[in-house]
Each structure stands twice: as C-alpha cells, then as structure tokens.
TrEMBL record:
Residues 1-15 form the signal peptide. One of its GO terms (biological process) is cell adhesion. It comes from the Eukaryota. GO terms for molecular function: carbohydrate binding. Residues 52-116 form the H-type lectin domain. Keywords: Signal. This is H-type lectin domain-containing protein.
Length: 415
C-alpha cells in the first residue's frame, strides 16, 4: 500500500474565486481640433482607432467584459457606419477598437464598460449584415426583424434569464433613421431580439452585445426618450447649447435593493434627423436606493427625436464565483492495487518551498468516497467527499485515500 505525501489544498473553502467587479468609461475617441484622430481625419473605409483599457485592479481570473456606448457623435454624410469591437480580454484589461464602416466622419464615442468575474454572468455578441427585412425601405413604414441566438451548451442557466442589449455597431444608408433593438422571447437555451426600423431608416450592418444572467442575479430595464414635438428642446436645432431631459426608473425587486450591487447602462435605440449631425448624449446616470435616473439629450446642431437606453443591476450571489483556471495539474494516474482502497500517486515534482497552487478538481465516482487526511500517519481524518469537488485554495492536507474499487477510471481532472 502506498501513501501519497503532498500538500493538498484545503477543502474548507470550495475552489471558487470570489466574484469581482470593475467598471469605467472609455473616452479616448473624441472630437479634436488638432490633431484629428483617424476616424475624423480620413475618409478611408475600415480606418480604425485602438485603445487599451486597464482595470483598476487585476482580476484573479479573466473576467466577462461588456461594452455599452453612452454617447454617439458622428457627421451627417451618408452612408454612416461604425463598429465598436472588444478583444484581448485578460486579467489586467482589454482592447477596444473603433472602426469606420463608411467614409463619413466619426467624431467619437463614450463607451461604458463592466468587467465581472462571476460564473452566473454571461455575455453574447452578434454581428450581421443579413437583414433583409430592414435593409431597404423608401416608404417610411415601421418594420421589425427578429434575430435569435442560441446559448452555448456549457452555460448552466436553470431558467429563462434576464438580458440587457446594447448597440455596438451600425451601418445606416437612408435619412431619418429610427432604429431600436429590444429583447423578445427568452428561454434558458436561447434569446430572440427584434430589430425595429422606422421612417426611412435602413440598416446594412448591425452589431449588438448582450449581458445575460439569472433573474436573481441580473435585473434589466429600458428607458425611452420620445419627442413631444416641435416644442421639445431635444428636437429644436440650437448651434451651441446642450439640451437634456431627465428620466427615472423604479426598482421594486427586493433582491436588487441589497448591497453590494453594481449597475451599467448603454444605448439600445436612436432616432435623429440625418440632415444634422448625430449627437446622442447620456449623462448623470445614478442608482440611488430604489431609483435609477439618467439624462438623455443632444448638443449643437443635432435633432434627437428618440433615444433608448438599456440598463442592468447586478447583485452577486453569496456563493457565486468561478473555478480557478490556475489549478495545479497534480494528478496523473491512480494505481489500483486490488484492495479496498486506492492511493493516488503524484507524478509532478514537488516544489522545495511547498505547493502554493490549488489542486485540480476531483471527480468522485458513484459509490466511492474520497478521504482526505492531514497527517501522514493516518491520524486526523479530516473530511469525506462523496461528490465532485472544484478547485481548492489553501494548502493544508497531506494525502488522499479513495475508498472503493476504481478500476481504470480517472477521478481527477487535470485537463
């Protein structure tokens, strides 16, 4: 009989990294007198501007990142097209690339972002130019085209989640565009949203992203500005002034009145006069007690007839987290000796200064029990594990014993 002597990770703390959250606003692409940035200076299709966003504090593992534009600022030339792309997400930051899809001038964007490390939160991004229903229209009628996404099989959604959606990219070719995206039918395996186009708005390209979470983790909603007519200050062209209207939304779900809680919002619809610059402004977004408030508006020579934002409030569950991806690959094989128990052999070299990484997840077969000891002489039996166990965090125990006949099966995970 062999005994394995090593520092196995503690079982008192399940192998989850506690949820982490960070957020901010990227304002690196904005109107400049001199020097102009590439999207403002050139007319080349595909010109781009890239910026690196750093987290305020490094994450313990790569988080989920959601982008949500909160200000559009571009010229009146047709067609108008832009694309905001997320890439290179890691534990210290990510990259945003702003791309021009047409020769038209782009002055800039403000993009809010959130980074969440929580296995209950997902994001999904969709880009498409296959939009036959809303791609061509001269009559000014309202048209709606449904688009559906299927969630990956490894998402462990127990029921239909809540989803907030934001517009990251558009290519519009007709005057007076009226475009919104709204969630429709949502199940635990898929989500349908509708692209709604009114007036003579025409879309040739669309990129949206969604943040998705269980209903006890993620609360979502929308706020809509709709013009009241010629007297509406957002509808009146003024060469200089900024004009805004304040809107509020109410939170009634008790779960989302608790702390800690985190919130973010972004643009999900717009309707403006294409004869003027598109300047869609949102500011002073606040979540205070049970109330969300935001100002929607425009400035200079722009007419904003409608503007829609989507918002979410995220509350981490007490037991939420993610499995540590840096779990050490300690186990390679398990020698079954034909007796009533099997002792696993550690094949990796043991560091001189001790083992400071977690052990990979254990998978205990049905009918078997994994016994964990903290002393080499079999004294101090500490815990019996009868189900799968994720990564463990603090070195504590000295060896393991699997009770039962295992045969050739593997009960550890070192992928």
């Amino acid at each position: 009989m062999k005994y394995l002597v090593l520092s196995v990770c503690a079982l008192s703390v399940l192998g989850f990294i506690k949820p982490q959250y960070d957020s901010g606003i990227d304002q690196s692409l904005h109107w400049a007198q001199t020097p102009y940035h590439p999207l403002q200076q050139s007319v080349e299709v595909g010109r781009s501007f890239q910026t690196l966003v750093k987290f305020n504090k490094p994450f313990k593992s790569t988080p989920t990142v959601i982008l949500a534009p909160i200000k559009y600022d571009f010229g009146d030339t047709l067609p108008q097209g832009f694309d905001i792309q997320l890439s290179a997400v890691n534990t210290v930051g990510f990259t945003i690339t702003y791309v021009a899809l047409s020769p038209a001038t782009i002055f800039g964007f403000d993009v809010s972002w959130a980074a969440i490390l929580d296995s209950n939160i997902y994001t999904y991004e969709l880009q498409t130019n296959n939009l036959p229903v809303v791609k061509s229209n001269k009559e000014g009628t309202t048209r709606s085209q449904p688009l559906e996404v299927t969630f990956p099989e490894n998402w462990s959604l127990k029921s239909a989640p809540n989803v907030a959606i934001f517009i990251l990219g558009l290519k519009m070719v007709e005057a007076w565009p009226k475009i919104t995206v709204n969630m429709a039918v949502i199940t635990k395996t898929s989500a349908q949203f509708k692209v709604i186009v009114g007036q003579k708005g025409t879309i040739e390209f669309l990129r949206v992203n969604m943040i998705i979470g269980e209903k006890d983790t993620l609360l979502v909603g929308t706020i809509l500005h709709k013009t009241s007519g010629a007297s509406d200050p957002l509808n009146a062209v003024n060469p200089e002034s900024e004009r805004v209207k304040k809107y509020e939304d109410k939170i009634t779900d008790e779960i989302f009145l608790k702390t800690p809680r985190y919130t973010l919002y972004g643009i999900s619809g717009l309707y403006y006069n294409f004869g003027a610059f598109c300047r869609f402004l949102t500011k002073n977004y606040l979540l205070v007690k049970d109330k969300i408030s935001v100002e929607i508006g425009t400035w200079q020579n722009s007419q904003l007839l409608e503007g829609q934002i989507s918002w979410f409030v995220y509350v981490p569950k007490p037991d939420a987290g993610v499995t540590d991806p840096d779990c050490a690959q300690v186990w390679e094989s398990c020698n079954y000796q034909g007796d009533s128990f099997t002792v696993c052999d550690r094949k990796m070299s043991f560091p001189k200064d001790g083992w400071n990484k977690p052990v990979k997840s254990f998978k205990v077969p049905d009918g078997k029990v994994l016994k964990v000891y903290n002393e080499e002489n079999l004294k101090g039996l500490s815990i019996r594990i009868e189900k799968d166990l994720p990564c463990m965090e603090v070195p504590k125990f000295s060896f393991l014993q699997l009770v039962g006949s295992l045969g050739d099966d593997k009960f550890w995970d070192n992928d």
